[in-house]
Amino acid sequence: MRPALVLLHGWGMSSLVWQEWLPTLGEHFTVIQIDLPGYGLSDTGRYEDVDTLITELLADLPDKAIYLGYSLGGMLATTIASHFPERVIALVTLASNLQFIADDQWPHAMDKKVFDDFYSLVASNAAMAKKRFAGLQAYGSGQEKALVKTLRAKKETVADDVLKNSLDLLAIINNTQLIDTLKVPALYLYGENDNLVPLSAANALKDRLGDSVNIIPDTCHALFLDKPETCWAVIDSWLDNAIELSPKKRVLDKQQVARSFSRAAETYDSVANLQRRIGNRLISFLPPVPAKVVLDLGCGTGFFAKPLQEAYPDGQVIGLDLAEGMVDHASKHQPGCQWLCGDAENLPLADNSVDIIFSSLAIQWCEDSQALFAEVFRVLKPSGSFVFATLGPNTLHELRRAWHQVDNYVHVNRFTEREVIDTAINSAGFLSAYQTVEENIVLQYDTLKQLTKELKALGAHNVNSGRPTGLTGKQRIRGLMAAYDQQRNPQGALPATYQAWFGVLEKPALAQTVQRQGLR
């Protein structure tokens, strides 16, 4: 059974603000969206004090839940977690200060005169106040204008007295003493460029609470809308470690990966322009050293066997792929190599047996990054190199965003976050300093059908758990096309972004490896 997740929005907005997050959250939790009094679908009147409001909210909420709150919602969630820890499994806040108005006890907040001036503006011109507040939430984002537009699109009619009442709540909530005695696991996320909660507040809290506080670089107050994938990656990873949830779904179905690419063996090369571009770039990262054994990990059709043979003419090239159909195709079209069908997370190779491992756009299909890099480290010889290119989670974000407007299924492959990869690299034993390059490649298509046809020919269609089964109805396809059409660029083309990461790792020399393993 999935745990309950309670969402609490901020001032001046309703639960509509979580719309883009719902498909992702719905895969992991039973989501409960709360509209604070007078907002959204709430028909409740004003409240004079925080305790009464919380009592009313809890009356309709599960006995136990995870609480995720934004700004004012996070401040309320923190108070709930402090007063009713038995009701809270874990707490996550986004851009929530301990108190909203600065004083001698907590100077890292808004100046009282600034708050009073804004309160007066709400009383005299609420529409202008909400418009200005959208700008304040987006200030500091790299996409400020677009984010302001997004925030304003989520506005709902809210009575002026409700806006003033919730400002009153903001003014009286004070968690400065409660935060140190909190008995539930808690995570606090802040934007580095937040114009409403100063960076000094995040830093001061980090001094008190350490790693429970996470500052997201180059983002604003509305950080979860500005950098949704980064924020979710931090939250998801933290929840994994902080609490024991129901068994999580496998992110990727590896058997489906193998079947999908096997079926695409004959069509792959005809449409693999991006794959060739990235692979050829990766060839330039190969170290100019002698090599007796070279492994092409995730070799696919074997296209890069020849460049590897040319780079290392005295070496034996081995191609390995999970998809049997790809290996069969490679063995028929690329002579002079050894071809193996196998799993990158359980390599059928001896310890310390390979000089160079080359892997272009393959490791994103692995399920366990820790196992992958541990296996690569195991089979590499001391001073051997792992040269790889992989895709990041921002890949095909335009298609993912379009599908999110249609339904809650997982339609687009989600790839591993950089933080997870870095952790796996360090855990395996590779040298902490390594070469890495990121390149965002944007392809353009005239129609959605061109993109989906190409993905199918590559074998790169959706292989995530949580994907829909059966046929996709015509109505949903029309909805997807309409949603994607909204993202056409000024040239009238549909963009498709691929977030490519290139890395070069080196296994330490033998003496260093022995020391790392504690044998000296």
How does this model look, in words?
By secondary structure, the chain is of the alpha/beta class. The protein has helices spanning 22-28, 50-59, 72-83, 112-124, 126-138, 144-153, 160-172, 199-209, 223-226, 228-242, 254-263, 268-271, 273-283, 305-311, 324-333, 369-379, 397-404, 418-428, 448-458, 474-485, 510-516, and strands at residues 4-8, 30-34, 65-70, 88-94, 186-191, 213-216, 293-297, 316-321, 338-341, 354-360, 380-391, 435-445, 494-506. Strands 9-8-7-10-11-13-12 form a seven-stranded mixed beta sheet, sandwiched between helices. A six-stranded parallel beta sheet has the order 2-1-3-4-5-6, sandwiched between helices. Strand 7 (293-297), helix 14 and strand 8 form a beta-alpha-beta unit. The two termini are 48 Å apart. Residues 245-250, 465-472 and 513-520 have low confidence and may be disordered.
In short:
The protein has 520 residues and is an alpha/beta fold. The protein contains 21 helices and 13 strands. Strand 3, helix 3 and strand 4 form a beta-alpha-beta unit.
